[in-house]
Model the fold of this input.
Amino acid sequence: MSIIIRTQNHAAIAQAFADYRPELLTYLTFRTGDAADAEDIVQDTFLQLLEYEQVILPTTFKRLLFRTARNLFIDRARRRQKRNEIYSYIYDTTPQGIASTEHAVAVREITTLEAQALQAMPQQRQRVYQMVQHENLSAKDVARMLNIDYRTVSTHLYLGRRDVRMMLRAAGF
Done:
């Protein structure tokens, strides 16, 4: 690449995607051990670069690209670790005498109630809630991906969680 890349220059980012994607994908597949996760991180990396507001020089582009990818990989690993810690805690603190049938019925009922609460939400609130709660994305990532303000995402998330809680409480959970 011999031109200065600016975020407004989508053609240059598209060319960089074509040039660096295979190398970045190999690097991330090695780091993650999963080609699908690696592909997701590659795409997220280039999406972040599209929003980058400073001039990117050709001499520093590759370094910025790999640093961004590495940071996204680390963020995902931290979220995954935190989720696993929560699951482990729940498993360790749940009485083992609970009948698996009762547990399965309760999980199904809660899932159904959550889906009903989601259907009653405005479309954008639904999307924000699903991206954070089910796709494990951060509010910052959701704001960037949906191109809305972070505070708007936070408000939608707060209201979405409140709606689900109210639905669960009304059903006796």
